Amino acid sequence: MIEHQSQLVGLQLNMRSPYESSQRVEKSMNSAVANLVQIMQQTGHRDISNHDDAFLLQSLKRRQEIVQTPDLSAFLQTLEQNETERVAFLMSLENNYTEFFRMGYVFSCLEHQILPGLVAKLSPASELRIWSAGCSTGQEPYSLAILLENIAEKLRNEFRYRIIATDISDSALNTARNGVYTEEAVQNLRLKDLSTYFKLDRDGYAVTNRLKKHVSFSRYDLFDPLSANPSESIFGNFDLVLCSNVLLYYNERAQQFILKKLINATVVDGYLITSEAERAITKRSAGICPVYPPSPIFKKTFEVQHEAE
């Protein structure tokens, strides 16, 4: 009887509730992310602590499967010892997927309402200033340039405009500057725009100088604490800022840092556009109000004085 009771006690001590098990798993995952951030900092790579933990963990597991290590602990050891793998992991954090005229409703609003309205307010000596933040391989800023060229042609008015496109990925920026896209990549373009603004060569569809001369590409880190906007823009004051599918990959503190920077760089009565998935994140920010709901288009209504970070 005593032996049976002791067996029951031992069984009870060895049993864990589902809640306790999930806590252990969560603690292990949090530890893996913390170790990952530390490894990347100590080995001289960029600070990734601003990224969302769930995104980092997902990226970690994906790379673990690719290199076929038995568990996260083993992969973290590989990451610490292997420079090539650290670079590969950083590249896996870059979301370079984009399309021409992505978010159809947003570009329809831009084409028919926002851009014509901004152009109508331009004085002969001024220029329309646009920032495409997180421009990836260039489809977004070139899409904007197409709309503006079409407006200029319709109005028979060659107004001045400038699109400053930035990203943190050097490889994506090189593709954007080159401006050559596959047949699959140009599927969203109207045939008239494709024939007007692209030239077909053996490498694909090449953006013509008519668009390229209005768009500049440069590397810019949105988390740079020493700059309020890309140095190429000198003073910011953008009439339109686009930053789509960037906020999603960062934690809340980082999201707010980016949004403050974007809003500060926008002129009063200018526009900020994120993405449908980021609309809820964006609309909580001070100084802007939503327009054309349920789109992720916001208008800056007043300047906000932020306390020092």
Structure explained in plain terms:
This protein is globular. Helix content is 47%, strand content 17%. Strands 6-2-1-7-8-10-9 form a seven-stranded mixed beta sheet. Strands 3-5-4 form a three-stranded antiparallel beta sheet. Helix 2 (18-42) runs parallel beside helix 4 and helix 4 crosses helix 5. The protein has helices at 2-14, 18-42, 53-67, 72-81, 83-92, 104-120, 139-155, 170-178, 191-197, 209-212, 252-264, 279-282, and strands at 127-133, 160-167, 180-181, 198-201, 204-207, 215-219, 238-242, 266-273, 288-291, 297-300. It has two domains: 28-92, no CATH class; 104-300, 3-Layer(aba) Sandwich (Rossmann fold).
First and last CA, distance: 67 Å
CATH fourth-tier homologous superfamily of the largest domain? Vaccinia Virus protein VP39
Biggest β-sheet: strands ordered side by side in the sheet: 6-2-1-7-8-10-9
Overall pLDDT, averaged?
89
Strand content: 15-25%
Helix coverage percent: 40-55%
Number of strands: 10
Count helical runs.
Answer: 12
Number of domains: 2
SSE ordering: HHHHHHEHEHEHEEHEEHEHEE
What overall form do the CA principal axes indicate? globular
The biggest sheet amounts to: 7 strands, mixed
Q: How does the helix and strand content classify structurally?
A: alpha/beta
Q: So, CATH architecture of the largest domain?
A: 3-Layer(aba) Sandwich
Low-confidence stretches: 4-15, 18-25
The name of the CATH topology of the largest domain is Rossmann fold
CATH class of the largest domain: Alpha Beta
